[in-house]
Each structure stands twice: as C-alpha cells, then as structure tokens.
Amino acid sequence: MTAILHTGDAERGALWQEIVAREMPGTDFRCWPDVGDPADIRYLIAWTLTPELVASLPNLEILFSIGAGVDQLDLSLLPPHVRVVRMIESGITNTMAEFVAMAALSLHRDLPFYIASQRAGRWDPQDVLLCSERTVGVMGLGELGRASIARLSPLGFRVLGWSRSRVEVPGATCFAGQDEFDAFLGQVDILVCLLPLTDDTRGILCRDLFAKMPRGASLINVARGGHLVQDDLLTALDSGQLLYAFVDVTDPEPLPDAHPFYGHPAIFLTPHIAGVTRKETAVHSLIANLRRELAGEPLAGEIDRGRGY
Ligand code: GLV
User: Fold this and answer.
1) Is 272 known to be catalytic?
2) What pLDDT does residue 140 have?
3) Closest ligand 1 atom to the C-alpha of 224?
4) Rounded distance, CA 253 to CA 270, Å?
C-alpha cells in the first residue's frame, strides 16, 4: 500500500482529499487523525513535525512542506533518506509579490510619514520622487525573491538582488556572495529580506548590516523572524539609521503582549500574512509533484537536506 497523510488544517485536508480523489483516482489520501495502518504512509504533508508523528511512520519516503520554507519543520527528526519538498505554488508567490510591492510603494510614497502627519493634524507635503529614483534590494533570489522582483521592476524601481551563489534575474542587477554584499547594501533604499532561514542567515538583519545601508533606508522582512535581531532594529530605528520597517514575521509568533514592536511608530507589524499557501492552488502543485514522483521525474522544490533549502 502507498498512502499519503495530510496533517494540520482539517478543512484543507478535506478539500485536498476530494480534489486528489478526482484528479488522481485510486490515490489513498488520508487526513490525520484517520491514519489507518501507519506502515502504509509513504508521503506526508505537514507544516510542522512532532517526534511522535515521525516515529509512527516507519515507511515514510517524502515530506511535502505546506510552506515555502522548511525551517519550521524539525528535519533532524527525519531519517536521512526521507526527501523533503518545499511548496512552490502560485498562491504563495502571488501573495508575497503583492505584499512586497505594497510595502515598497508605501515606503516609496512616504505613506508612513503621511499617516503620522494626519494623526498629528499636520499638513506637510514632502518632495515626491519617482520609483526610478528609488533602489529596492531583494536578498534571496529563490521563487519568492524572483516573483517579487517581477512585480517591483515594472513599477519602475531600480532593483538589485543579492544571493549566496550567483544567479541572473530579469529586472534586477544581481550581486552574489559575501564579497559583493557591502556593495549591494550600500545602494539600497528599501531592503527586502526573502532569504531562507539557515544557520548562515539567522540574525543576518543586524546592526552591522543596517550600518552598511544608506542612512534613512527602510526594511521589509517577509522571510522569517529568525533573520532579524530585534533589539538591533529598535536601535537602528531610534537612531535614524533606518527610517521604517515592515515586519511580517517574528520570533516567536505571535509576539508576546507588550512587545515593543506593537506600539512602535516606525514599525508596521503584520501577523505572518505576506505570502500564504492557498489551499485552492497549492493542491495542484502537490498533484503535479505526485505525478512526477510516479513517473520517476525530479520533484519541483526538493531541498538539499545538507544545505537546508
Ligand atoms: C510561510 O511562511 C511559508 O513558508 O510558506
């Protein structure tokens, strides 16, 4: 027997079960807690893992992440032969690209400044710049970074990209590796973080990085809370090194009550909604991958477990 087990949101599970039954008749798609014989489960769909769940599935072959990222899954629980696949689907990429464009345009057109002016009863027009006079830097040039660039570039922004290894992205001038990091940061008015969270990138949004950006630049973190050193952001905002920050992801989530980010006038906090897996579209990515697996073809989004992304 080969069965698929869906865990997490029950409504999504029921929808996916129905769609998989229609599109791939005969597929044994089960929704937790109706696991049946755990020895049948070869494929697991999950946002997070528990040791009990992993230990109960002796024949697991592939873990499909619900999310674009996999860092929220404790992969050390999985035997080394289990393959791990991140979610690549149009719902996540489109919502993320929209959010990044919204945040970049808001910063570009000084919306935070005008909201504060309005609240204070001030009529205070500022110089108006064109997008072409503003540089947006995107760190992380995977699916989501590239989709965001594809939205930013037609708006007219000057777009730069940075990633660990060299890639070319239409619409952006790309920088690579540690050697080119400072040259990238030194030009960026609005920095977008879309890196995967790994041991190398944890805490990368820190005092040193902020100091390398032009004074008065702004930050959009839509990757993971673990990328950001929260105290360093507060210091950079309070000193004027950074002007504003859109923060969609935090560590922990949710932030505790009374956390300084909630009330900070220069921080725009959203509850991890920038890029969201949409159950209506993601199921088709899953089905396409199941078909590839049955045909012995490479899967879209399989990660290198050694590298972590
Ligand atoms: C959300 O953050 C995801 O990884 O899809």
Assistant:
1) yes
2) 98
3) 2
4) 11
Instruction: Tell me how far apart the alpha carbons of residues 234 and 240 are, in angstroms, rounded to a whole number.
Output: 10
Backbone angles phi, psi at 10, to 5 degrees: -65, -35
Q: Is 224 a catalytic residue?
A: yes
- For 171-176, the CB contacts below 8 A with 24+ separation are 172/138, 172/141, 174/141
User: Does 91-269 match 3-89+277-294 at the fold level?
Assistant: yes
pLDDT tens digits along 121-170: 999 999 999 999 999 999 999 999 999 999 999 999 999 999 999 999 99
Pick 3-89+277-294's CATH classification: 3.90.1310.10, 3.30.365.10, 2.40.128.280, 3.40.50.720. Answer: 3.40.50.720
Name the CATH code of domain 91-269 (choices 3.30.2350.10, 3.40.50.1860, 2.60.40.1120, 3.40.50.720). 3.40.50.720
State yes or no: pLDDT of 91 exceeds 80: yes
Ligand 1 mutation pick, 9, 72, 93, 248, max ligand atoms within 8 A of CB? 72
Closest C-alpha residue for ligand 1 atom 3: 67
**Predicted pLDDT of residue 308:** 86
145 in ligand 1 pocket by Cβ < 6 Å? no
- pLDDT attached to residue 181: 98
CA dist., res. 278 & res. 300, Å (int): 17
pTM (2 decimals)?
0.94
Q: Which of 249, 277, 281, 309 to mutate to test the pocket of ligand 1 (most atoms within 8 A of CB)?
A: 277
Q: Where are the domains of the chain?
A: 3-89+277-294, 91-269
Q: Is the CB of 92 under 6 A from ligand 1?
A: yes
Per residue, what are the HEC states of 25-37?
A: CCCEEEECCCCCC
